[in-house]
Amino acid sequence: MKRLRSSIRARLTVATLLPLITAIGICWLVGISIITTRFAVQAQQSVATRLNSAHEIFLGELARLSDIIRLTGQSPAFASVLNSPDQPAVTLPLHLTLDNERLSFLTVVDRDGIVRYRAGNPGVSGDSQKGEALIGDALKGAVTSGVMLLSGEQAVRENPRLPKQIAVTITATPHARPDSRRIENRGMFLVAASPILAADGSVAGVLYGGVLLNRDNRLVDRITRVVFRQGETQGTESENGTATLFLDDVRIATSVLDEKQQRAIGSLMSSEVYDAVSRGESWVGKAFVLDLQNFTAYEALRDYRGRVIGSLYVGMPERPHLELRSRINVIFSGVLVFVTLIGIGLSAWISRRLSQPVKALEEEVRRIAAGEKLPDISVESDDEIGALAHEFNIMKQRLAAREAENLALNRTLEDKVMERTTQLEGKNRLLLDTQKELAQAERLAGIGLLSSGVAHEINNPLAIIRGNAELLEMSSRLDASGQSEVETIIRQVGRVERIVSNLLTFARTKTKILGTFRLEALLDDILDQVGHQIPLEGYRIERRYQPAGIELEGDEDQLRQVCTNLIVNGLQAMEAGGVLTVGTEVSAGDGQCRITISDSGSGIDREMQKKLFTPFFTTKTHGTGLGLAVSYGIVKDHGGEIRFASESGQGAEFTVLLPLRQPTGREVADD
User: Fold this and answer.
1) Pairing mode, if any, of strands 578-587 and 551-554?
2) Considering only 9-13, 64-68, 230-234, 437-441, which range has the smallest mean pLDDT?
3) CA 444, CA 392: separation in Å to the nearest integer?
4) Contacts of 620 (CB under 8 A, 6+ apart)
5) How far is residue 492's CA from residue 41's CA, in Å, rounded to a whole number?
């Protein structure tokens, strides 16, 4: 069967395009993956952080109510009235406080918990409130506050107008749990109680009051305005943020709008969120709000006795983030397609230039082989192909002069052809290797550019997060738990800053600051300091230095980074302890020194060896995958190379080859 013939031009084109298209495809997949993941994570983290701010606003509202009740109850007239059987003389101040502060009810009880006067319902008194835990603690002398649920019967005693304000009509909601109720008749109140002190300092009674949250959107609007900064960031996605107060799973106050652009009061929470919140757990993640996916965060609300009675919610719609992410993906894909088209054009042009002399030579040789009498072969090429054409000319002359020696001449011709063919194949292999290196360099440059852009974009919000966290850490309102959480935020911000620093180190080459130093002293200093980073219990470190010592010329700080990376990697590869061997040696013949770092760990799997120096590839839980890539670049910049040898289960050995002296002409790289 006759084999299909392919031209060298087609082969060169394919050989050039395959690495280019592969590298661009990998860049596209990695870039799209990073963009997609980063958008979702940042949006969800933003919502979780804003839930904390909303919680602080909620507590601030409760504290404001406590201050109102406490300051109102400090009037000396209250104690005297409570000790007198006459009609209270403080009804006017109570009514003024009730109206001015927009309270739902304001009530005075004596030391036995018996209601003496209700500002919201003066005609009803004499019942006992001592059974309420919040009022009972206030009778012991403490100012108390919290969230309380009141039934319709309890609310009507405090204020006859409350039942109408409390009632919330429940509407069917997609993704919510089945619910047969039509109306929610319970009310959620912010309640505070303050003791009324007699002249001798004893508790003469308690003043308590509350604010109804059902249908009162002032608090959720304030949370929405402050947390999402609406009105300050027009045209941004943040103005779509919403907040809600739930009683069980019913929205009793919300800034969420339904399809009619009305507040969705009475709609229900999605069933999967309710299952978590009803157990007192927080929910941070994607969830349905009405019929749309949102980035959400929910926090359970508990009454004074600690029972879960509802939740506080903040969230942002997912759609604007999806649209922004799609636009970025399209731009990123367009750039890669444009680069691919340029690469295809360059590849076709290069392959055509390289194949033209070969095709000309092929045509001339074919005609000579057919017996045609032709002048000398002329190929306008100064490389091996031109030399091959010249040799063919000599061969033709010898054929004409020595027709009698055909057998010897044929053998000579075969030897020449084999030799030149071997040379041509070697040059082709060298060309392919060079093309692969160029493709690798282009891919690393592209990843470096992407890394630099991502790192610079992260730096600004990272600085804001750190600044706000440090301000929050200095706040006197935080308890021990809050301080611990803020410290965790600051530590994690520090970790992200180190990752960003590694990205910038990988993305840009620093100017080498050359100097001469003792290699063994540098290694000893690293080994003496590495114990601060990794506890050395269970490890044995062997130092096998050349006795005479080695003086090395190079950038000491950069080479310190390379050696530190390899030593730390070796120690981390031995999780249960082991032997780390560090050795030095000078090869006098070629003016190079050799640094070997080997461990007795589990070795490197063959599949992982192929990706060892690939940026962002790591097997560590908290690694960035940049250590070996950065080290590889530093060693190459010093005119050296990194080699490694490893068998699975038998440890690994890394060898760094460096010239003892750097070239006289020192290049300065862009920072």
Assistant:
1) unpaired
2) 230-234
3) 43
4) 572
5) 15
Min mean pLDDT across 345-359, 396-410, 523-537 is at 396-410
Q: Give Cα separations from 517 to 259, 548, 564, 637 (angstroms).
A: 73, 14, 16, 18
Which ranges in 140-283 belong to alpha helices (H)? 152-158, 162-166, 218-227, 271-277
Residue 246 vs residues 28, 264, 271, 281, 298: alpha-carbon distances, Å: 44, 12, 13, 14, 10
Highest mean pLDDT among 168-172, 394-398, 666-670 belongs to 168-172
The amino acid at residue 41 is V
Q: Is residue 470 part of a domain?
A: no
Give the domain range for residue 336.
1-345
The count of domains in the chain is: 2
Nearest one of 333, 238, 459, 328 to 36, comparing CA atoms: 328
Model pTM above 0.85 = no
Question: CA-CA distance, 109 to 125, in Å (whole number)?
Answer: 9
More confident residue, 271 or 445: 271
**What's the first-to-final CA gap in the chain, in angstroms?**
60
- The pLDDT of residue 30 is above 90: no
Low-confidence winner among 24-38, 53-67, 313-327 (lowest mean pLDDT):
24-38
Q: 3-class SS at 38?
A: helix
* Domain final position from 345, 378, 410: 345
CA gap 621, 61 in Å, rounded: 42
Cα Rg, the chain, nearest whole Å: 40
Residue 418 lies in a domain: no
C-alpha torsion angle, residues 277, 281, 285, 291 (rounded to 10): 0
CATH number at residue 118: 3.30.450.20
The residue-averaged pLDDT of 229-234 equals: 51
